[in-house]
Amino acid sequence: MLGLMQPWPLLCHKLIDHAALQHGEREVVSRSVEGPVVRTTYAAIRSRAKKVAQMLVREGFGRGDRLATMAWNTGRHIEVWYGINGMGAVYHTLNPRLFPDQIAWIMNHAEDKALFVDLTFLPVIEKIAPRVPSLKRIVVLADRAHMPETGLAHVACFEDWIAEADGDFDWVDVDENAASGMCYTSGTTGDPKGVVYSHRSNVLHAMIAALPDSMGLSSRDVILPVVPMFHANAWGLAQSAPMIGAKLVMPGGKLDGASVYEMLDSERVTFSAAVPTVWLMLLQHLEETGKALPYLRKVVIGGAACPRAVVQKFEANYDVEVIHAWGMTEMSPLGSLGSIKPSVEALEGDERLDVKQKQGHPPFGVEMKVTDDANVELPRDGKTFGRLKVRGPAVASAYFGGAGQEQFDAEGWFDTGDVAHIDAHGYMEITDRAKDVIKSGGEWISTIALENLAVAHPDVAEAAAIGVQHPKWGERPLLVIVAKPGRAPTKAEVLDFMQDKVAKWWMPDDVVFASEIPHTATGKIQKIALREIYKDFVFAA
Amino acid sequence: MLGLMQPWPLLCHKLIDHAALQHGEREVVSRSVEGPVVRTTYAAIRSRAKKVAQMLVREGFGRGDRLATMAWNTGRHIEVWYGINGMGAVYHTLNPRLFPDQIAWIMNHAEDKALFVDLTFLPVIEKIAPRVPSLKRIVVLADRAHMPETGLAHVACFEDWIAEADGDFDWVDVDENAASGMCYTSGTTGDPKGVVYSHRSNVLHAMIAALPDSMGLSSRDVILPVVPMFHANAWGLAQSAPMIGAKLVMPGGKLDGASVYEMLDSERVTFSAAVPTVWLMLLQHLEETGKALPYLRKVVIGGAACPRAVVQKFEANYDVEVIHAWGMTEMSPLGSLGSIKPSVEALEGDERLDVKQKQGHPPFGVEMKVTDDANVELPRDGKTFGRLKVRGPAVASAYFGGAGQEQFDAEGWFDTGDVAHIDAHGYMEITDRAKDVIKSGGEWISTIALENLAVAHPDVAEAAAIGVQHPKWGERPLLVIVAKPGRAPTKAEVLDFMQDKVAKWWMPDDVVFASEIPHTATGKIQKIALREIYKDFVFAA
């Protein structure tokens, strides 16, 4: 027996319809790529999105076509997303921080037919576009006055282009399970893999993200998504904000401390979201200038583990609530958020910070467990760690083209590739990446735990723990250390410092000192490169 | 091209799974029907719901079966709901306030196969059950010690009954569009009509209801649903609360001011929801006793238009935010909520109260419009009123058995039967029921507006406006008035008082005085009966 409720599909363009009708005059303010701060409204964004859709249809693009964007967070980027979704195509966000070869590979893999690009990235695209034969149209997100000379084929100037349309366009009907968006993960190994969001997953994610114990977003909020739309959907904010009618403040390409502060202050931002680096820059700017944050209520920090000092400074010095969050491109991206549950509400000081340091608890719509290598679920005791697996309506079921099938099991669980433990209150803490964890005599040693401990030594600037082959134990930990300038800690000093703070059998078998540790473009330690450097290392007998 | 996201169906029993895993120790406190306050947790509720499911399957009940409940808000009632949903059947809430004949008619129409019933209602059920041949099992929600003598067939005592099961039961897989719940509307005309909720509609409604600008529910909240689970799903609270992990305080059968206050105070309730009558009783109790509401943060008021004084007193005297809400059984039930939008945030005093008096604005997931009789949409100007129509994933598409098809149009809009206007900010205000509105010379006159105006006269206790046949205008307004005890207002006094406060052509053509006005069981004016009484009334020439 079926329910007798309306078959009202969850479609992304209904989000902008709702915003335009119920919050039509609510502002979307952008630092434009051309320079000045520009202001528009949800009503205007919808009407321009209709023109985008109309032009795309007129030029022969259709349902399911992948139409790429390489753009900062601006009102125009939002218009493009909703225009693409409203005519049934798929917005495909390109990360300009990747190498041009990777971008070209991704565009060809996705068979992108069109590209909307900010002025900033035009030089890169001029190199890439000739290598992407599927590309039939490149729209530069600028007005006529700012259009540069370019030798690119199929080029249009965005403002001129949409001026050709009258906006008299009905959104097409699409299935809620139709593809809505696409984003490639740039793994450290192998080719990038494409995640394909559906309308349904995006809308459900937007709802879940706005709930009080997730981000907690209201129409009275002023939201500044520093996290880029090309980085895992800006954590859903370009969808949650219109859904609830919040004012949006889009930072464009300027993400330094002073620029972010200027937008926070002049637009009276109440909520923001970014990776730790951005917050470190902002806090440094505040400390240098002595400025305060009178309007900011809450920040969400994710994308990398958040330094304890960042949480502490925001809450103690600026009265801003910090929510540590964790997610993945494959999860739309939110997986867990560190809002305070009643069971830990009474904690204070360091104990409270310990909870805030964890990656948080999953909201309804995200199932989460840790298992051993044999897929047996491990206890939720806050210490037994294992492979972190997730399931939910906004979690990927496969990658575009079928890559990475080994990450999905028959019961629908996605293996995140992270190693974590979950405590009795439901808070999850990442302890490692599965490919980095050290397997010693059948037991696992967390490299992140060793590194966090080592960098707490006053003479240590950076530390990396890796597994090195060992004849008896399979692998044993080797600690690689970069000393602070002018300091020269010894192996014995470092090991003494770590002694009794981790299990005895976790202690590194050796410590080596290096002048630097290799990093990825996004600042993460390149463990693969490090393991390559030390692949012939032999522990002293 | 489809998205590549997990086919994770939105199922009601996933709500209690999430609560048990993520908020397992969070309490559900009930004033039991037997008397004492009893305490349980989400983890315990889920494990007892599994026993309910196991017993139902063992006794031969299956998917799609309608299994009725006639019960107050208690933890047991929640166990029964989730147990029924988890084995694929449909919970069917019966309203004990209806006449026994109506209840029997409804049970036979739904073909209820089982019934879970509170002790309170056993005498009624003893009369009804023999007339419902489909009924194979009656479970009395009590323990052995409280089981009364009864001549009913197929009776079990709830606590003994579930003690037979070990709870080792896997929820069944059901389609998210499968029926989950059922509730009949008791129209003032014709037979009751069955609304059939799906798992999907209930879960989406629970999410929408918990959003910051709807009810705004967090795990740190303590929620007291005074509104009964048999009254439009307790406005979704039995689903929203486990979804977000809030503590639930269930009032059982005692809804008087002192009893509600006792639960609010002793359990430190932060959020509550009820019809205006309950709040009037509570406010009277507070005024008589001089007590305060230190924990209560917010109340939602719906089910009937909320007296202005109630909003004013809660906010000014007790620092409790009031959200006026509107909905219908057919809408799961929330349709609009009066949270403050940024566009009206600056209003103060009477202007702010004017906004709060309206029925609120629809959240994402509810589309709303007003049309004239020819289905042409009317302007959103805050004065042009017409038929209120709604659309959304938690809005009915039909009634059980196909009744009332004329209320659903080809584009999916449901005609609510209400007459309303919508202002430029999106706030909707009900001005009448469609069947009560007075049609004078092709124009509509709001009976609610006339009644609200008339009762503002110091000598008027109650007023009802009805349309009476008129040779020239079709209908003209007749005002029926009940004077306050010891007062005797005249027709001229009343009309003088109303003069210039409504359009001239809205003014009643005549005023009659009566000793009483007929009411329904739920306290609404019986306009049909009143029109019958005055059907031969002739206006003076």
Give a structural overview:
The structure is a homodimer of 541-residue chains. Chain A is of the alpha/beta class and 541 residues long. In chain A, 28% of the residues lie in helices and 23% in strands. The first copy, chain A, contains 15 helices and 24 strands. Chain A has helices spanning 12-22, 42-58, 75-86, 100-110, 122-128, 158-163, 199-210, 237-244, 257-266, 276-289, 308-318, 349-357, 447-455, 491-498, 527-533; strands at 27-31, 37-41, 66-70, 90-93, 114-117, 137-140, 155-157, 179-185, 193-198, 222-225, 247-250, 271-274, 298-301, 321-327, 334-337, 367-371, 386-391, 414-422, 428-433, 438-440, 443-445, 460-470, 474-483, 510-513. In chain A, the strands form 5 sheets. Chain A has an 8-stranded mixed sheet, sandwiched between helices. Chain A has a 7-stranded mixed sheet with strand order 7-6-5-3-4-8-9, with helices on both faces. A 4-stranded antiparallel sheet of chain A has the order 16-17-18-19. In chain A, a hairpin with a 6-residue loop joins strand 14 and strand 15. In chain A, helix 1 (12-22) packs across helix 2 (42-58), helix 2 (42-58) packs across helix 3 (75-86) and helix 9 (257-266) packs across helix 10. Chain A is globular and about 75 Å long. Chain A starts with 11 loop residues before the first helix and ends in an 8-residue tail after the last helix. The mean pLDDT of chain A is 95.
